[in-house]
Amino acid sequence: xxxxxxxxxxxxxxxxEPKSLEPAPPSxxxxxxxxxxxxxxxxxTDVRVLEEQLRERDEEIxxxxxxxxxxxxxxxxxxxxxxxxxxxxxxxxxASGSTCDSTDSEGGETRKxxxxxGAKGHGRTCREDLPFVEVWHDLPEEKRRCPxxxxxxxxxxxxxxxxxxxxxxxxxxxxxRRRRYCPACDCGSVPGIVSAPRPPKLIPKGLFAxxxxxxxxxxxFLFQTPLYRVRQTLALDxxxxxxxxxxxxxxxxxxxxxxxxxxxxxRSRSANHWHMDETRWAVFVELVxxxxxxxWLWVIVTADTCCYVLDPTRSAEVPKRHLGExxxxxxxxxxxxxxxxxxPRILLAxxxxxxxxxxxxxxxxxxxxxxxxxxxVACFDQVFEQNRKRLGVQSDPTAFRREDDGLRxxxxxxxxxxxxxxxxPALPEAARAALESLRNHWEGLNVFVDHPEIPMDNNExxxxxxxxxxxxxxxxGSGSLWSGALAAMAFTVIQSLLVNRLDPxxxxxxxFEACAANGGAAPAAIEKWLPWNLSKAxxxxxxxxxxxx
Length: 549
Prior knowledge:
The strands form 2 sheets. Strands 3, 4, 5, 6, 7 and 8 form a 6-stranded mixed beta sheet that branches. The chain has a two-stranded antiparallel sheet with strand order 1-2. The longest helix is centred in the N-terminal third of the chain and has 51 residues, at 26-76. Strand 4 and strand 5 form a beta hairpin. By secondary structure, it is of the alpha/beta class. 45% of the residues lie in helices and 7% in strands.
């Protein structure tokens, strides 16, 4: 914050001595006149300095007030950036003649999502895919006869049926009783007692079954439940288990996921279009040369993979190592500087949602710029809407060309409007910063125009980073290097299965059963387990059920 400065003693002196009533000598009188003249000449300069400092202070106060408003919105306000459709404020249109309001052609609000109030319901959904148990009910003996004459009722064909869905969670001890045999002959070829083979286990000599470990992995890395809370849930169902037992089992499961993780990373590197983002992830270990426990979890999303890379730094070396020196393609990113050093073969498609947030932040935090920011936000909304119209008619070349021309015209008007406002010397600093950022990233923001298959935003990466962020809030991060590596691998496998519309519970159960049959090691032919190599029968059997993200 700017500090209000006052003139120093070198420019203006004050004396504590009492004033003398005697007339001063001529030399002193002339000295006082010279000082007064000097102060008179310096006064306009001092006023200008103070006015400039006051302006700087006022600008800093406005900036800090906007920052506080934005932080309060992040902490207490609505996080969604979606807005209800409705009339937008009218404003000066861009120079090309395109308007930047998001009202529809009819001027009314669009239909809300979901079932409308007053609409007829569709009835209760029949859950015939669930297993069922029949529970029979009968009238008491005294109710099965006429209350007047006492004659018994006759049974009537059929039943009155109703159903309910029960949620049963059971912990079961499976006692494997293996039959034993002894030879009845005296030839001696089979000495001793012969027993049925032991059932395969994911962790040899371990206490818990394969399905137990699958549920534990999903609880922690899909539903982000801390282990202490899992233990409390198990205790409610009658099983007391120590933290170390669960932690030790997870540590032994990590190497089983590593081959899948490496296969998914290799697939991600071979793509030509990625979404990339990063978020902090605490790893509570001490590393030489690193201060603190803040690591970074990088998320890289392609058409059929979602990979997470845990690294101590947020430097550009992380995406460079992942993509490799020969990588070429389009990368959807935010405006973080590390992405801008990836080389000429990587075309950066900057996120329009991030650019729009600059103006939303001004809209929410600076009342004096409310109308200005609201107009620009409406302009961003119309760009999104026009691109949706364009993508909706890709199968019709004529209609696509018409909507594509409309999009390019809208962007041209937006660019001219931006440059005209930047040429205004009276433009407030916050507005200038937002427009300069828009100008500096304009080329990357327009990648989607010539590449309709490329999204306008990087929301896919942000959505895939949200799941670990919930875990970070629930259990803070990882307490060791191996647990951090397990988190990255588990996030990668589970989210990649969801990207491919596969049920992670069914898939992991089948995969771990194969690991158990292989003596507690990963299958040799790991390629068969990668999602894009699965047979049609397995994809159908492991298809993600409705409601799974």
